[in-house]
Every structure is written in structure tokens, then in C-alpha cells.
Amino acid sequence: MQNGFVESFNGRMRDELLNETMFRNLPHVRVVISTWTTDYNTERPHSALSYQTPADYARNESSAQRAIAQPSPDGVNTNRAPVATG
Chain centroid to CA 65: how far? Predict the structure, then answer.
């Protein structure tokens, strides 16, 4: 086990989505996974966040005071490189 958070997420995704869904094609996979991920990241309460949704936790003043990641310094290129599809 390299990272407990990643292992936990992978297990949940496998049990709740991948084992339960018959995908028709790649676009269908993308839509279903995007929908599930959005629900997981915004609407679902998490035990690590005192059973709050991530959106509620982010609105909480105590959590808003802690910076999760610092912004890029001036002059750093944050544009993503295009990725070929298919």
C-alpha cells in the first residue's frame, strides 16, 4: 500500500462504479466517470472531513484559513500542453 487515500479512492470507485457499470464505448465511459467523480468530489460527505461534503468543508472558515496549495509564482507558465486523443 503506497498511499492510503489513493487506495481508498480506487477501491470505492471500483466497487461503486466500475464493477456496477456496463460501458458502451469510450465517450460513455468519460461521461459516467465524470458524473461519478463530480458527485464524489462535491456532493458526498466524507469521513475525513467530519462527514461534511467537500463544498461545505471549503466554506467552513477554519478550513478556508489553511492553504492547500500555493498559487504559481509570477512568470510560471501554467498552460497545459495539448494531449492527443484516441
Answer: 21
Other C-beta atoms closer than 10 Å to the C-beta of 42 total 12
CA Rg, the chain, in Å? 17
Contact (CB, 8 A) for 10 and 18: no
**pTM exceeds cut of 0.90:** no
Under 8 Å between Cβ of 36 and 13: yes
| CA distance to 18, 26, 27, 83, per residue, from 86 (Å) | 21, 9, 11, 10
Q: DSSP state, 25?
A: S
pLDDT tens digits, one per residue of 44-73 = 888 888 888 887 888 875 544 555 556 666
User: In whole angstroms, what is the distance from residue 49 CA to residue 55 CA?
Assistant: 10
Which letter does DSSP use for residue 18 in this model? I
